[in-house]
What we know:
The protein is mainly β. It folds into two domains: 2-228, no CATH class; 244-332, Immunoglobulin-like (Sandwich), CATH 2.60.40. It contains two helices and 22 strands. Strands 1, 2, 3, 5, 8, 9, 11, 14 and 15 form a nine-stranded antiparallel sheet that branches. The model is unreliable at 1-52 and 231-239 (pLDDT under 50).
Amino acid sequence: MGFILSLCLMFSTLSILVEAKENDVITLLTKPTIKSVTRKLLVDQKPIFDKSGRSDLLFDQAATGYYGFYPCMEGSGRICDNFNVLYDANVDSAVWWGGYWNGTPTPPYYFWIEIYPDSIGFNQPQQNPIYTETISYYNETNLGGYYLYEAVIPPFIAVTGETYWIQFMATLIFPPQWGNNGSWPGNTPGWGDGQECFFKSVGYPLWTPATTVWGDPVETSFQIYGTSVGVAEEPGKTKTFIFGLSQNVPNPVREGKTTIPYSTTREVSVTLKIYDSTGRLVKTLIERQNESAGLKTVYWDCKDKNHHPVPAGVYFYKLATEDRTVTKKLVVVK
């Protein structure tokens, strides 16, 4: 095993020496024929790592296709993307997408998963992780040129209102090289929540915005699963939810449709309204009396109250109850 690890480090070092900054991204221009597909993961399916009934889907930035891989291999580079939760949760499993180049695909020996806190006020990861784990047992599914990975992970408590940054890094013998599946606004309507990734390597020793490295605000593809930590020990009691409004997905909105997750703490009257940049009411999405507590999702088709498509621009959506309000921004592009 020591010999294998020595080879891993030696080839990783070689990859560093020959790595050029402009070649950090490997863009895949054509989609190959799918030769072997074991199973595609859909949001309403149970991940194969949890056949007895999966945890709640806490954050969803799923892959929407086959676009490009961004290097994330031990000794070579790492890339992290943000996530948040709508209620205090015990993160217990994850799904991510990635792929190989520069050699025959060989499954990694294991993955490193690291979680970083947000640098308050700067909207970027801090330099040191608060969670570091190696994952030796995972499922890898070939989707035809790119791969889906699923794993149960050691628990991590995520707190509502906080932003976290997560990275999935492979350990394998070079070649091949491995990278996270990534996308950017110009190539897919499924681009994530609008917050670009950050990259770190020998050439970039500190977390650096994707736009600085590659010229595109890249986002990676992953999902986070877990359960509420507000479950009471006494029988018959239910989850304690936190009042919150999440970022719409996708953002920017390119296909004329988006979803907005939110949660409430108790049975309460709720409104969710869309406003344009001048403050004019565009559409009321929700106006309910005595809505039960819990995590909800509402759909907006990017049309106004008269059923006309809204023009491109900046919009605001506001969740309000009798005593609380929260507002977030979204962007519609044509």
